[in-house]
Amino acid sequence: MPEEGEYFGKHGEPRKYDPSFKGPIQNRGCTDIACCILFIVAILGYFAVGILAWSQGDPRKVIYPTDSRGQFCGQAGTPLENKPYLFYFNIMKCASPMVLLEFQCPTTQMCVEKCPEKFMTLVKAYVNRNDFDYYRKYCKEGVTNSMGVPQILKEGLCPAMLTPSLPFTRRCFPALGQKGGVVTVGNITHFEDGIGNIREAKDLVDGVKNATVVIEARQVVMKIFEDYTQSWYWILIGLVIAMLTSLLFIVLLRFLAGIMVWIMIALVILVIGYGIFHCYMEYAALKGEPGANVTLQELGFQTDFTVYLQIRQTWLAFMIILAIVEVIIILLLIFLRKRILIAIALIKEASRAIGHVMCSLVYPLFTFFLLVIVIAYWAVTAVFLSTSNEPVYKVFNETLCEHSRATCEPANYSISPMKAQCPDSECLFAFYGGETVYHKYLIGLQFYNVFLFFWCANFVTALGQMTLAGAFASYYWAFVKPDDMPAFPVFSALGRSLRYHTGTLAFGSLILSIIQIIRVLLEYLDHKLKGAQNKFAKFLLCCLKCCFWCLEKFIKFLNRNAYIMVAIYGKNFCTSARDAFFLLLRNMIRVAVLDKVTDFLLFLGKLLIVGLVGVFAFFFFSGRVRAFENTAPSLHYYWVPILTVVIGSYLIAHGFFSVYAMCVDTLFLCFLEDLERNDGSAERPYLMPESLRKILNKKNKNQPAE
């Protein structure tokens, strides 16, 4: 028909019958060689960046607090090994706004064995031998009994006063409290500052707030780390349960695909329904409780996340979200009820394919292993790069000084012109930086580290997709299964992918990585423009983020299908992507009917496994069940292991179901090719399974009509 010819001409020519075609082409050549060479050069450069970072970096900079001379407090094997705490000479100087810009208090800081435990001024301590010996623990070296108080204070050797302090993230902060609504420190409301002034305890509050502005997050991280140390083995047990559940689900799908899909749908609806019921019960239980009606906006950000669970609005939000998800799933099931039958037939065939290629279920472990190596290399390199700066010292002073915040050298600062012009100034450690060629291009090395991380991670994922596609394509096109299949289809497909198509894998993953790095840059710009009032800039940035998100999804879809075509025909990336795209365009209705509905059903399977394991983890770690009260570990945040188990369960379920998804996508493309290559005659019989032929009203002509 003319219309059909015009349609095919617009979307590529359909496949012609080829009697010699028996599945994935064995006689093939290397593809996209230029990109393969570029990838190898980039990897060698990545190793060079790692070696450079490891030779320059020092992770101790993020582990130990640093004193005014750039030394690490409590570092093993150094003179400061027994001095793990950082002491501030004058914590009130931390109230300066410069602290928020430079993250460093303009006061002398030194490492001490323990924080001060009592009030004491230098003037009063000096007249008592025992008190002065105690006081000297918080002074610089070189203080002697022969020195007078004015000389000690002039040279900045000792603080003017000591206040009772408590260690917080290895730093000594005043032990602030409240008595009758009044701020106290060491149970008193007023104190002498050592230079003749009587100060109120509340004067210390601003200094403590600014000094802790950077380390509040570290406190939360430390608590989370402690929770992991207390619950890691229970988390592993939860992940093992998720793995066994996923494996059981896959095995049951192999034999009871139809029944399992409907059971899965019912259980997903029930699990989400229980989540709605539980949220309602928590919401109702908090009615009348003091403070439960506070809104999330009024509460603001809290480091103790359990506070949010004491608010009714939190449970109301959870309930609404789950209800919306439940309604969407039910509506989709109602509208797609007929198409689900076709998808079940495709899942059944995928189950048979996996049954003949059982090694495919183990392959995600290999992909996971490679991804762990990539992530670990990126993380270690990032830490070493971020800690490869040199200590920078700056001039800090109390009075007006033209050299304020200028770079200085602590070794000879006492005899420098800057000290002569500003007698009360000090040369203190400010931050880590540097002005060498290496430090100037450090941000570029960090960018290269992130980009290569995306490229390598996408390459590993692409390798898995092409390998599984080659294995399942050999199953579909085998005329007699499994006799016409390779002995080890997964290993054969992996060998072909690495030997002939490393360049193609690098090409596809490079395109995806460029889009992802652009999205990262857009997120960075969005973060920088948070306080901007330019509505047009915000709107433009939002549009760009949305467009690149859509583009990333499209490229992932295109790459996936391109890798399937490469695995079958052995052509380069661009040709394979074009062929796959036109093949899907020529069968757009079938794509919507079969492929996407199948993806939806597999997503429900992942949702079911995550829901079951997540509910079990919630009751165990929250202590809501009496049987687990004595068994569950004591935690700061019980949501930490729960969230870890839920995310881990999803990744595990995704790993197993990704094999199914790749199998379905491969069989689907082969099925479309089968429809174009063959017509069901004795010479050109369909290779699709009988169940699919019945649903699509297709039959081989040598078979009797039913």
Architecture overview:
The protein has 706 residues and is mainly α. The chain has a domain at 3-53 and 220-383 and 441-696. It is built from 23 helices and twelve strands. The protein has helices at 2-10, 33-56, 60-63, 98-102, 122-126, 129-135, 149-154, 203-211, 216-285, 296-299, 312-335, 337-356, 363-386, 417-421, 437-440, 442-476, 489-500, 502-528, 535-569, 573-586, 588-621, 639-677, 690-695, and strands at residues 85-88, 109-112, 120-121, 161-162, 165-168, 171-174, 176-179, 182-185, 190-192, 198-200, 390-396, 426-433. It has a two-stranded antiparallel sheet. A hairpin with a 2-residue loop joins strand 7 (176-179) and strand 8. Helix 13 packs across helix 22 and helix 16 packs across helix 19 (535-569). The protein is elongated, with a radius of gyration of 33 Å.
SSE diagram, text form:
Layout: H1 2-10, H2 33-56, H3 60-63, E1 85-88, H4 98-102, E2 109-112, E3 120-121, H5 122-126, H6 129-135, H7 149-154, E4 161-162, E5 165-168, E6 171-174, E7 176-179, E8 182-185, E9 190-192, E10 198-200, H8 203-211, H9 216-285, H10 296-299, H11 312-335, H12 337-356, H13 363-386, E11 390-396, H14 417-421, E12 426-433, H15 437-440, H16 442-476, H17 489-500, H18 502-528, H19 535-569, H20 573-586, H21 588-621, H22 639-677, H23 690-695
Antiparallel strand pairs: 1-2, 3-4, 5-6, 7-8, 9-10, 11-12
Helix pairs in contact: 2-13, 2-16, 2-18, 9-11, 9-12, 9-21, 9-22, 12-21, 12-22, 13-16, 13-22, 16-17, 16-18, 16-19, 16-22, 18-19, 19-20, 21-22
